[in-house]
Structure formats: structure tokens, C-alpha cells
Amino acid sequence: MDDRSDAHRSAGGAKGSDDGVIEAKTDVPAGAAALAKGLTLLDLIADAETPLRFAELQRRSKLPKPTFARIIRTLIAFGLVHQNGIKGTYTLGSRFMELSHRVWDTFDLVSFASPELARLSEELGETIALCRLDGTEVQYIGERSGSGLGVRVDTGRRAPLHSTAAGKVLLAFLEPSVSRPLIDQLDLETFTKNTLSTKQTLAADLAVIRARGYSVSFEEHLQGVNSVAVAIVGQDGSPIGALVVLGPASRLDAAQIHPVGRELIAAARRITGTAGAVAISSRPRPRVTADAEVTSLECVLPWGAQLGEAPVWHPGEDRLYWVDILQPAVYRFDPKSERNETCALGKLVSAVLPVAGGGVMVATQDGIEALDFDTGALTVFADPESEVVDNRLNDAKVGPGGAIWVGSMRLDASKPTGGLFRVTTGGRTERKESGITVSNGLGWSPDGRTFYFVDTIPGIIYAYDSEPGTGALSNRRVFARIPQEEGRPDGLTIDQAGGVWCAIWDGWCVRRYTSEGELDRVIELPVPRPTSVSFGGPDNATLYITSARTRLPATTLAEAPLSGGIFACTPGETGIASSLFDLKP
To answer: Would the pTM count as exceeding 0.85?
Structure first.
């Protein structure tokens, strides 16, 4: 799953509450109460995940109906609010677009970023810096230092692109036509033992950065100094600067650096949001207790993965394989001994495919590859989208006919450029779908004649008629649609009764749907971001659930400390044994 941006609008005059009501600030200057109420309404309209109707908007505003009606009519008259006459809903008006263009014409990055630098420095207690691209280097153009001992950064100083968090995030979010010639000019000087000193390792790290949304540097430039950075994007989506936090490695360690990255994403969006860009919130949904299945759920592996994904039981090895996409590694878990073996990879890996006779194939940013788990050696087998540089492969399964099915997505999940592909045992690739935003869960009914496929962003599980022998698909239809306020569908698996089990990202649960698409039951989880599910064990009676902690705020991590772990339960149904890929042509 890629979500997945994390931002919270913070326009003047209003603040958000947990139930979606916008409350006016108390520090409004005398005589400006009406103006503050109008700004409050604009904030409320902008933050609504779906356009609101009159009654709901008035309820959330807490304004008397006559006052609310006068203000909303005035905002409409000035083009700041648009009313949909057919649906009766309200959105921001076209005047905002006009104003945003004027702001960008005179945009001063340092001025707009200064409040965020000051706030972050005070909250984090570390050095916060603002950077921009300057030729083949990154230049610091603003900074705020925390109290006490920290990392010193001088305004005007330049640093290399390939070994700093700020430089790498700028490279990652530049268009390939710009970044590739730039990378060719770099000499990739080695500063520490952690410096990325080859173009191959740098390219792999840039892909992870693009998928994750922020970059990290663990003592890659200066010994004892770690950093984390995000790109500040302009009106056209290109980076105009970077926001970076630098701190002693002993303080800004692996446990702290990723939550800081999430805070920086929100801060960067506030900077450009002030200049007219609309910030989109994808904060985890509040935990809600529902009519859920009471089952024996336990965390069998409290691992803390950033983006744990793609669990699959290898029947020939009696092991559960899974991956961490954002700290790229393939894992092999033995439930009996509780041993979790690691095969770290230097590039994005998103799925594991068990092979007949032992071993696995994996989906990586370079295609479908054979993996030697003991050595980490990879051998390319097929690359369905070698020509699409901004895409990567995501979820993958071996189908009942023996072929590999794999979906793709844009690295930053910003556009529907993904597809679905079928790869035969001989390596022949066939495109099956296009126009997918975040391709995810795949599965087949027990008889192999219905294929299920998830596009996470619109919240849809699709069903198709399928021919197991040929892989032909037809009659695409919506099997289930998950409303955005309930989370988003992610990985799925099928049981022997035809039930479809789906992890609900940001939904704190796993759902089971009947073969007719009716919600059958819910298994609540102690984590907000379950990512995928797979039946396993000797009798395929155990349901394994992976999860993520990426971009979760500190408050959510405190409530859900097991985020990133693997969970298991025995729901009563048994799963379908994993299909194996045969490498013979």
C-alpha cells in the first residue's frame, strides 16, 4: 500500500477537532469575528474528505443557521465557495485557483517556510534546515537550531546530493529527464562506509524514497550525523526545495527518524498549502469498536516493519515468507521456532512467489527475479514494465494455472499508471489491465473461475470471470466497495468456502466477504494499517496478517505499538494451498 500522503491543513483562524468539527480560535482580533467565521467555514469545506451538504456543514460549523446562511451566501458571491446545484454540496470556489496562481508568481520559499522551521525546531529539539538544488550540490538557504547540543548548519553551505537526505530527496522527485543527466555528472565520492558510491545503489535508494515519501541518511555524509528530508513541491509538482532534520546518530536513530519523516511530510505540505496548494489528509481513521469476530488473535512476530506486506506460505518449506517494502528485505518466518530470517535487498521488493521444488521468485523494482535467499543473489526472469521508469511492481501471486500475476503502480501512487500482468513459466508477459492507481490484492475462487483484484485508492475489489488454463479475463465488475471513511482495501486471500478475506488499510481490521460480495464478518486488530493476509500452516487453518507503521503519527504509534508486526488467528475456515511457480519452460 502507498498512501498515501499525510498532511493536515492549518490555515489561519481555525483548528480541527476529532469529530470533524472546526472550532474558531480564541485569539481573534477585536472586530474580526465575522471574518474568522468565514475563514472557519473555508477551512471546514477544504478539509472535508467528501463535499458536504448544507445541514452537515452548518452542524460542524456550530454557527446559528441564519448566521451560517449569510456567511455561506457571501462566500459564494465572492467565488470562494461553489455550490453544486444538483447535489446540494459545497466545495472551494474557482477564485482560490486564481489567487493561488498569483501567490506562486511571487512565492518566496524562505519566507513561507520560516514558521515551519521555527515550529519544528522547537518541537523536535533538532536542527531544521531548508535547502535547494544548486547545480550538482544542495545548498542550505535557511536553518533553525534546537536547544542544547546538536548539528550545526551554516546558511549558504553546500553539500553533495548523493550522500545527504536533502540531496537524495530532491533527486528522487525530479522528473527522470532531469535527474538522469544530473546523476551522470555526480562523482559519487565516498565520505563514510555508509555512502552510496555506485549509481546502482543510488538508483535503488531513490526508488525507495519515492515510494516512501521522504529520504533518510544514516551517517552517509558525516560520521555520527543522521538526517531525514522531504521535498517541497511547487505548483507543477516539481521539487522547489527540501526540508531536512539533522541530528546526532545517537539521538535521531532508526526508531525516531521515520516518525520525524512523517511530520516533515505534513510540514512541507503546509508550506506549499499556504501558497495555494490544497493539502490532502490521509491520517489513520480513529479506532472504532464494531460488531467484530471474537477470535484468538496474537502478534506472533512484533517486528516493527515500515511496510510489511505480501505474506505467503511456502508448502514445500513450511515457512511464511513476507517482505518489508520500505526497508527492502525478504523474510522467512518459522512459526514453530519463532525464528525470522532476513535477506536484505538493496532495492524495492514487494512480493514473494514460491517455486516448485523450493526457493522463491520475488517482485522487485527491476521486475520478476529469482532470489537465492541465503546469498541475496537475484536473477532477472521477466520485466513487464521496463519502459515505465516511474512505475514499480506491487502485489503478486502465482495463479491456479501456474503463471505469475503481478500488478504495478506509480512509485508515489499519484497517477493511475499501473497495470496488471500475467507472466508465464517461459517468461512471456501479457498485459491484463491498465489505468490502475495502486494495484493490490489478487486471488482466485476455489474453482479458479473467478479472479479478484484490488485497486486500493478508489477502494474497490473487482471480480472477473477467469479461465484457469489460459488466464483469459472477462466481465469485470465491482465485487465490494469500501467507503473511504472506513479505510481502504489492501491485500487479500480466499478460503476454501469461497470467502474473500481482505486487509483494510487504516481500518484497524480484516474483513471477510462471502462469494456474493456480502460482508460476512470483521476481525478487529490492535493496529490501524493491516496490509495483507494469507492462510498458512500445515493444514492452512491459520490466517497470517502483515501490517505497517509507515507515516503513522506518534500518537497513533503510542496507541498501536505493535504496528509493523505479524498477527495470526484461526478463524475457522481453511485456506487454499499456495500455487507454486515452475521455472521449467
So the answer is: no
